[in-house]
Amino acid sequence: MTAQPSLEAVERRLSLPAGAADWNTYAPEFEALKKAELSAATVPAWLSRWSELSARLHDVSARLSIHKDLHTDDQASQDRYQNFVAEVMPHALRADQALTEKLLAVEGYAPAPDFALNYRRFRDAAALYREANVDLGVTHEEQISRHSVITGNQKVRLGEEELTIPQAKQRMDDPDRAVREAAWKALQASNMGVAPELDAVMLDLIKTRRQFARNADEANYRDYRWKELDRVDYTPQQCQAFHEAVRDEVVPLAGQIVGDIAAQLGLDTVRPWDYNRNNLLDPQGRPSLKPFKTGAELQTLAEQAFAGVDPELAARFKQMRENGLLDLESRAGKMTHAYCSYFPTSNEPFVLMNVVGTAEDVRVLFHEVGHAFHGFYSGDAQPLVWNRWSPIEFVEIPSMAMEFLTLDHLSHVFSPEELSRYRRKQLEGVVVFLPWAAQMDAFQHWLYTEAPENVTIADLDAKWLELDQTFHPFIDWSGLDENIRAKGWQYYHIFQAPFYYIEYAMCYLAAVGVWREARRDPAAALAHYKAALRLGSASPVPELYRAAGVEFRFDREHIRGLMGFLKEQLGV
C-alpha cells in the first residue's frame, strides 16, 4: 500500500530555502538578462535562462499561496504571501516588461514554430502593460485574499454542531427532506453572516478592476480582461449568444430532469434544498453514495481507477501520492475551494481539496488530477515555462474529460447499480451545470460593461435575481427570503477569477465529445487526450481542440446536438 504523506510532510514540500521570497535573490539574474548582448542567434539560449528564472519565481508564489490556503486562520501565513506579492512581484513584473521589450526589439528574429504563439502573446501583453497597474495589482491581490480569509474561516452552526462549509454541504445530499432543509438554512445563515464583508470586498474589487481598464485606455474592464486573457478566438457577442442558446436549448432540459426527479420523489415543487447542481437527488430516495471515508482511501481507489484508464496515468498519480503533492482532508481554517497548482521547476502539480466521503469528491478528484496530468505532460514536452499548460479555453478539457474517461473503470468503487447512478449523475451534471455557467458569465458581462459607474450592492443583487429567475426557473423560492437568492453572486470566481467561467462550459461540451469518441474507440480517445496535453500552450485553441478529437464550438447548433446525445444517453 502506498504511504500517505501527513500534513507535516505536505508542508515540508511547501517549505522554501532561505532567501527564496527575497527580491534580491533574483534581481542580479534579471539584470544580467537585461544587459546581455542579444541577437537573433542567441535568443533561444537567452529565453531558456529567462524561463528558468520565471519558473523559480512561480514555484515560490505557488508554495506561499498554497500554504496560506491551508491556513486561512494563520495571519503569519497570510502575511508571508502578501509580502511576496507586494515586495517581489512588482519588481518581477517590471523586469519581465523590460525583458519583453528587449526581445521584441531584436532585429531579424523570427521565433521558432513552438514559440511563435507566445511571441505574439508577449507583444500583445507588452502593449497592454501600464506601470500604474503594477502597484494596483498588489492592491488587487490583497482584496482577493480578503475573500479567501473570510470564506476560509466560515463556520456553519447546525444544531449543536459546528461544521466546515464542505461538511455542511454534504448534509444537502441527505434523502430526508427535513435534514436537507435544516442544512440549507444553516448554510444560508452562515453565508448571510459574512455577506456584508463580502459586499465590501466586491465593491473594492469593482473599483480596482475599472481602474485597471482606465489605466490601459480600455473602454471597460471586460475589454481589458479580454486582452489580458488573450481571447482572440471568439468575441463577447459569441458569449452572449451562448447565454441565449443555453436559455433556450438547455434550461428546459434541466428543468425536465430536475422535475422528473422531484415527481418520482413525490415532491410537488423543487425547493432550494432539493437542488444541488453538483449532486442531484436520487429519484428513488436512496442515500448519497459514500464510497470512502478518508482521503487516504480516496487516493487508493483513484489510483486503481487511473490504472484502468492507463498505467502511465496511474504512475503519475502515484508520484503525487508519494511526494506530498495532495492535501485532501477537510479541516477548519482551510480554504474550501478545490484546485490544482503547479511547481514548474520540478514539473510537479499539487492538488488541494476538502473531501467528506461523497461520490462528488471522487468526481472532483478525477477533475483536479486531470489538471495535474496536463501539467505533467505539457511540462514533459515543453521546456519553456510559457509553453506549458494551455490557454484557459482548453485548460478544463483535461480535467473534465478525465471525469468521463474514468467512468468505465470504477467497478472496484461502486456496485453495478451504484455505478449506473454515478454515471447518470455525471451526465445530468453537464446539463444542469450549463445554465449556471451561462448565468455566471452573463452576470459578469453586465457588471463590467453595463452596470452604472456608481453601482451598488443592491444593483448586483437585483441583477443576479433577474438572471437566476431566467436560468433556474424550476426552483421554487416562494415564501423564502429573496435576499438569500440575490446573494448567489457571492461565489469564488466572481471574486478571484473574473471572466473565468464560460471556459468550464466550453470544455464540458468538448469533454462530452471526448467521451463520445471513447465510447467508440477508447484507445484513440486516450491517444488524442495525451497528444493534446503535450501541445501545452504552444498551439492555438482551435488546434488544441482538434488534437483532442473535438471541435472548438459553443454555438446554438452545437449545443443542441450535444443535448440530443445526452438525452439519448439519459433516456429522457
From TrEMBL:
* Ranges that cross the membrane: none
- Peptidase M3A/M3B catalytic domain location: 172-559
One Pfam family, short name please? Peptidase_M3
Keyword Protease in record: yes
State how the cofactor is bound: Binds 1 zinc ion.
Co-factor requirement: Zn(2+)
Write out the entry's keywords from A to Z.
Hydrolase, Metal-binding, Metalloprotease, Protease, Zinc
Q: Which family does it belong to?
A: Belongs to the peptidase M3 family.
UniProt cross-references to PANTHER family, sorted A to Z: PROTEASE M3 THIMET OLIGOPEPTIDASE-RELATED (PTHR11804), PUTATIVE-RELATED (PTHR11804:SF48)
The name this protein goes by in its record: Peptidase M3A/M3B catalytic domain-containing protein
Give the species.
Deinococcus xinjiangensis
